Amino acid sequence: MGIRHDWWHEEFIKGDPGAQMGGGDGREGVPHPTHTWLSGYIPEFSSLLDVGCCNAHTLESFNRANKQIDYYGVDHLQELIDFCIERHPEARFSVSDAADLQDFEDESFDYVLSRHVAEHQNHYSQHFMEMWRVAKKEVIVVGFLELKDEFDILQYGVKDNGKFLPHWYNQYSKPQMEAFIKHNMTSDFEWIDDFKDIGHPVLIIRKPHES
After folding, report:
1. Is residue 27 classed as helix, strand or coil in its secondary structure?
2. How many helices (H) and strands (E) in the chain?
3. Cβ(134)–Cβ(101) below 8 Å
């Protein structure tokens, strides 16, 4: 059995960085309902770690809303981080593993976001725990695939228009995910199912308030 092909570094990055994940033009961000919701949800002047920032489309959406956020973006692709640094010198970016945010201390950011990232991890568990560790107030997870009722479907490699994509593309069980969160984090979490009828679940996991 051969070594797994690194699709992200060898194929995904071949495209125009500005066009990935719907792209943005440096001002307008991505015209997507979850971005519009997020830019209204996060309080102004909050600190935010964007895990899997891609081309900084989330930052651009905050800019479009004229909201000042202490933004820090991380991604595992150096090419995307270089693109973000050149386009947005006012913000902070660095290379990091979504499941091992070792460059950040506990409770470094008010909010920690991942958007369309969890499905591409080997599993969400370590990804969630690292975001939970680094967050001070809330972890926000914007999903890409609809959740299942019973079991996780962990699949390495799917066909997209007949082409094999050798990376993780998982669908998760909502009951299993809730049990994981309750056991390892907190019982204070909220779902926005099928956000705006687009099929993207939004999960908000809240840290305990200080007494």
Report:
1. coil
2. 6, 9
3. yes
State pLDDT tens for residues 137-187. Answer: 999 999 988 899 999 998 887 777 777 777 788 999 999 999 999 999 999
Q: How many domains does the chain have?
A: 1
Q: Is 193 part of a structural domain of the chain?
A: yes
Domain extent, residue 94, equals 28-206
pLDDT in tens, 32-85: 788 888 999 999 999 999 999 999 999 999 998 999 999 999 999 999 999 999
What is the SS3 assignment for 145? Answer: coil
Query: For residue 151, what is the domain's CATH number?
Result: 3.40.50.150
Residue 180 is encoded by which pair of tokens?
Answer: 């994981």
Query: Does residue 8 fall inside a structural domain?
Result: no
Phi then psi dihedrals of residue 97, to 5 deg: -90, 130
pTM reported for the whole predicted model:
0.89
CB contact set of 144 (below 8 Å; sequence gap of 6+): 116, 119, 200
Tell whether 211 is covered by a domain. no
